[in-house]
Amino acid sequence: MAARISYAQVAPGTELPARGFPVTRATLVRYAGASGDFNPIHWNERFAREVGLPDVIAHGMFTMAEAVRVVTDWAGDPGAVLEYGVRFTKPVVVPDDETGALIEVSGKVAAKLDDEARTVRVDLTAASAGQKVLGMARAVVRLA
Amino acid sequence: MALDQSFVGRSYPPTRPYEVGREKIREFAEAIGDAHPAYTDPEAAKQLGHPDVIAPPTFVFAITYRAAFEVVSDPELGLDYSRVVHGDQRFVYSRPVRAGDRLSVTSHIDAVKSLAGNDIVDVRGEVRDESGEHVVTAYTKLVARAAGEE
C-alpha cells in the first residue's frame, strides 16, 4: 500500500505524480455495467453520431473516477477525500481500435486549508487528445 | 420551453435503502482499473481505520443519479431529457461509503435556470445511512442544451 503523505511534507505548488489512464471501448462497456449507466452514447457509435457526437465518448463519471486516482494514490487513503468536484467541459472521444483514448491527469497542491485538520486543496487538470476534458477539478483531502 | 420555477426548493422523500455490497465495490473498482486494497481487502481497509472495505469516491453517483433522475424526469418540470448532459458534479463527504451501508438519498432541487437557451437544473442528493448519519452530499448540475446547438 502507498505510504501516506504527511501534511508537513507539502506546500502550495507541490506536484502530485501525473498519471495517464487508457480507455478503450471494452473499458466503457465494463464501466457501464458496474455503474449502471447504459446510455448508448458510451457504447453505440451509430447512436453517438446520430446525436451529433464525433464518436463514442467516455462516461463523464468514468473520467471523474480516473482523475481522482491521482489524489487517492498520492494521499494513500481514498477515504481521506473530503470533497471532490469537476465540470465536464469536453468529452473523451474513444475510437474503436486497440489503443482507444488516453486521459492524462496531473495535480498540484493549491492551498493548505487547515493546519489542525491537515486538509489541503488539490487542483487537477485532465486532458485527452490535447483537449482539456475537466474544468474546475478540485479535491479537498486530509493528509496524515 | 421555460422550466417551471416553482420546482426550486422542492424536496423529495428518501429513497428505498440501497445496500452496498463488497462485491459491488470490487466490480466498480475493477471497472475503473483501481487496485487500491482498501476497496477489496477488509484488512487493508481496517489498517486505514475503516470498519470494512470502502468504495471509490465516485461510486455513490450510481445511487444519487437514480434519485436525481426520478426528480428531473417529472414532465411538469419541463426539462427535455433527450438533450440533457451532465454539467458539473461535486461530492462533499462526511465519511467514505463502505460495504454494509444501507444508503438512502433525499433529493432537493436547488436551482432551475435558463441561460443562453440552455435549461439548467441543480439537484442536491443528501445520502444518509440507516442510523440517519450523513455520509455524502452529491451536487449534480444537469444541462439541457438549446435545441439546434451542436
List the helices and strands and how they pair.
The complex is a heterodimer of chains A (144) and B (150).
Chain A: E1 15-23, H1 25-35, H2 45-50, H3 60-67, H4 69-75, E2 81-88, E3 101-114, E4 119-128, E5 131-132, E6 134-142
Antiparallel strand pairs in A: 1-3, 2-6, 3-4, 4-5, 4-6
Chain B: E1 18-19, H1 22-31, H2 42-47, H3 61-72, E2 84-93, E3 102-115, E4 118-128, E5 134-144
Description:
Chain A: Belongs to the enoyl-CoA hydratase/isomerase family. Chain A: It holds the Pfam family MaoC_dehydratas. The complex is a heterodimer of chains A (144) and B (150). With 144 residues, chain A is an alpha+beta fold. Chain A has helices spanning 25-35, 45-50, 60-67, 69-75; strands at 15-23, 81-88, 101-114, 119-128, 131-132, 134-142. In chain A, strands 1, 2, 3, 4, 5 and 6 form a six-stranded antiparallel beta sheet that branches. Chain B is an alpha+beta fold. Chain B has a domain at 8-21 and 59-144: Hotdog Thioesterase (Thiol Ester Dehydrase, Chain A). Helices cover 19% and strands 32% of the residues of chain B. Chain B has three helices and five strands, in the order E-H-H-H-E-E-E-E. In chain B, a hairpin with a 5-residue loop joins strand 4 (118-128) and strand 5 (134-144). The radius of gyration of chain B is 17 Å and the shape is elongated. The interface between A and B is large, with 34 and 37 residues. Strand 2 of chain A pairs antiparallel with strand 2 (84-93) of chain B.
